[in-house]
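STRUCTURE REQUEST FORM
Protein name: Uroporphyrinogen-III synthase
Source organism: Iodobacter fluviatilis
Requested output: structure tokens
Priority: standard
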Amino acid sequence: MQTLSGLRLWVTRPGQQAAGLIALLQAAGAEVLPLPLLEIAPPDDPAPLQAALAHIEQFDLAVFISPSALDAVFAHLPAPWPKNLPVAVVGPGSERRASALGVQDIICPAVQFDSEGLLQETRMQFLAGKKLVIFRGNGGRELLPKALQERGALLTIITAYQRQPPRFDLAHLNAQLSSGCDGIVISSSEAAQHLFQLAGDKALQALQSRIYFVPHPRIAQTLIALGAKQVELTNAGDSGILHGICQHFTKPRQE
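Status: completed
Returned output:
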């Protein structure tokens, strides 16, 4: 049964991360518009990444903040990932990507898919004197690095990629809004900010009236602060987002 038949949904993830969710939504009958709100690019200075990968075996644990970090690192890995080097990730999307890349020992939160959830995992508690490397994009939250350092970890932070604003302009955004939009999937607070910063007055009002599907409360809070009137919180991961969207559009309407 094509639960989402007749609906036009926007998926705003970076192109490299959107294919799985798009396929699920299309299989459920939706027309999907890929509209990346973040572009993933190499770091300005690749030397620190290259140096870390040349001696990756020196670390006791590698932390990847996103699937993009995994892709950036494994694209430049000079040798197979060391079998005895565990990988820590913050969500199911990264866990699946790490597994697909051949990583055998993966630490991932069981319930809360963010930095706070990862920090609650048993294997993240006793890190005094351990050498850790964090692979991430430019900027980002400092909660995880700070907490790991407070636990005594010897931390190396590597910018494996950089996030850039979307390439489309206001005219393209207005054209897509005119073509119809029944819901927008937003996967990061930064992406939400890019979308609303791009909008002019007319587009801003249209965006604030749309339905947003987000996998984390922090993204929902960002959208509400930007004026969004209807934000639906889904579970994490492609299947969790699909389930939340299907549930929204099939639940009985209140008269």
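Reviewer notes: The chain has a mean pLDDT of 92. Residues 137 and 207 are 27 Å apart (CA to CA).
Form closed.
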